[in-house]
Amino acid sequence: MKSKIFDCITFFDNNFMFNLRYNILKDYIDYFVVCESMYDHRGNPKKKNFFLSEEYNNEKVKYFILEKPFPKHTSIWENQAIQREFLLKSLSFVDSEDYIFFSDPDEIPRPEVLTNFSLKKKYGIFMQKCFNYKFNLFNIHESPWEGTRVCKKKNLKSLDFMRQKVKSKNLNYSFFRIDKEKNIEIFNDAGWHFNNMLSPQEISLKLKTFAHSEFAEERYSSIANIESKINNKVDLFGRGHNYKRIELDNTFPEYLRKNYEKYKKFNLGI
After folding, report:
1. In this predicted model, what pLDDT tens digit does every residue of 72-96 receive, in sequence order?
2. CA pair distance 230, 84, nearest whole angstrom
3. Does residue 207 contact residue 267 with C-beta atoms inside 8 Å?
4. Which of 1, 90, 215, 267 lies at a CB distance of 3.0 to 4.6 Å from 64, suitable for a disulfide?
């Protein structure tokens, strides 16, 4: 029996990006698994944001809601891990030989890599080209990006472990370490990280609610700062990263190219 592919994400509010993800991957994966919490990682209540569009095949999209508040006195990173492990528990219906792909919502695997997919090692890492603000604004400084992770369900003990501890640099260690998984297959040129394809207001909200609390400060999260950085094609956090406009050519997802009008707000013209 052929192993099924489950594309798993934790969700905050970006329906725009999930819609793109769905349309790029729908013919290559078996199920999308979406897990949304009713609290942000700082423990603040939030509304339900995921929109199950009529264009989606409802049998193909599995949606789970974590309604319970995060425990008191847990850190932002612990809350992120709690949401990830709730997603893992929701996968009880998945067979042991099926593949679990775990990504941030804006990390999209290249469909061609998923065709007749086979994993030779225990874990896999998808090396992805990184883009910021616009689909064709290339971030060479963070490319290739270590994005999507994959393993078979039988080997998946923790989504947080797979995300935090399964890294390509582990392959450089010449000795065994229990916290440095080395049974890893690298998939090169294996997708795209479309980071911050959001309005300045949405980016500001993201910075104030996501796990990297050091970037919630006003000097980073103010609308004025974000607009300035987007207009100047530079990194939000003053790390000296300059981004380069490239052509939206056949190295990009076919669906994105064929639906240019739908996404032109986040495509950078000449």
Report:
1. 999 989 999 999 999 999 999 999 9
2. 31
3. no
4. 90
